[in-house]
Amino acid sequence: MQTQRLDVADQNFDAVAQAEAGISRLRQLSVKLAMAELDIELFDRMEPLEAEWRALERDRLSSLHQGYDWCAAWVAAFGRPLAILRGSIGNRTAFILPVEIVASRGLRIAKFVGAEHSNINTGLFSPDFAADGDAVDSHHLAARLRATLAGKADLLLLQNIPLEWRGRRNMLAGLPMVQNQNHAYQLPLLDTFDKTLQQLNAKSRRKKFRTQSRRLEAIGGFDYIVPEASAEQHELLDMFFRLKSARFASLGLPDVFADAQTKAFLHGLIDKRNGGDFGLQMRGLRLKGDYEGRIAALSGISRKGDHVICQFGAIDEHLAADASPGEFLFWQMISSLHDKGVALFDFGLGDQTYKRSWAPVETDHYDVVLPISGIGIAAGAAHRAITRGKAYVKARPGLYKFAQKIRARVG
Fold first, then answer.
1. Over the stretch 300-329, which tens digit does the pLDDT of each residue have?
2. Distance CA 137, CA 135 (A)
3. Measured distance CA(380)–CA(97) in Å, rounded
4. Are 216 and 222 in contact (CB under 8 A)?
5. Which end of the chain is more exposed for a tag (fewer CB within 10 A), N or C?
6. Long-range contacts made by residues 49-56, C-beta under 8 angstroms, separation at least 24?
7. Is-contact 64 90, C-beta < 8 A?
């Protein structure tokens, strides 16, 4: 009797599996059929798309960098020509790709809005399409994108896209691509801070934290601050600009935050809030005692849903250097985000030792490189070659260190 029950259970399981496979095939077929009816329109303003844009960005797996408020803050600061791509099938919006045109040496490059300061890009897709990325006819999609951008851009360059993000394959994954030289690093936040630390070398990290704490207490202690007042947030951001400028100068590197537009953009993000989500929030380590009121470390984070991204950080190199205040601030931030509905703390792009020490998850990113014109073909080939060259150098620590020295001398 027991064997018979198992046989029946197996049959039921097989029937369910076959039904699910059949549903999946039907969904993929519907997506492929729908692609034949795909229409792509180009918009030079954000406002006409706001309602459907905000509807699509509710998808928890879409990047906050493609959110309406994030893009609006960038557009207000930079004012570049927009070429926003909306894909629709019938009267349904299938996707929105927030794109701007960047002019460079006679070349018109269509990029994600704010690509220079984005840590992850996904685009915005309707639930039906987002669920079946493998079913997309990429050749058809590429042809439609080329036709829509013809005369507007020479090259479509959509950077820093993970082919798969938190279990979902990206709809753009089948387009012509090159792997980006930069990877991103994430730390999953578990039920408790102790469990989160178990993913790392918990014993060593706790020992380091105790040492840092003792050194900070020896000079009078500290406060971990997250100012509520907008004015204080803006003050901390201005302080970040000063600290980062000094750091870049000491290394002989260009200051990527120096221009007025970038500063205006980041200031604009501070007041962009939607429930528990926020465009930018400053957090810091303020010293007491010997250095009363001085800020030893600063960081700016963004949040969408359960995903928090560290956008940048800076330290005052003249304060409590032996306590590693920057790393100590990460401990404070990460521990404080537990029980706040956060599932993933993202250290963003760029391979740095402190990121690897905190982040057990490494995510590869890719660039869509789709030529639109003849000059775009040459530019696309150059981007691929340069990107692969950078990846080759970064994969070899000795060569990368030498390249940084050369860059500092030239800069």
1. 999 999 999 999 999 999 999 999 999 999
2. 6
3. 19
4. yes
5. N
6. 49/84, 49/86, 49/96, 52/86, 52/93, 52/96, 53/96, 53/98, 53/124, 55/93, 56/93, 56/95, 56/96, 56/124, 56/125, 56/126
7. no
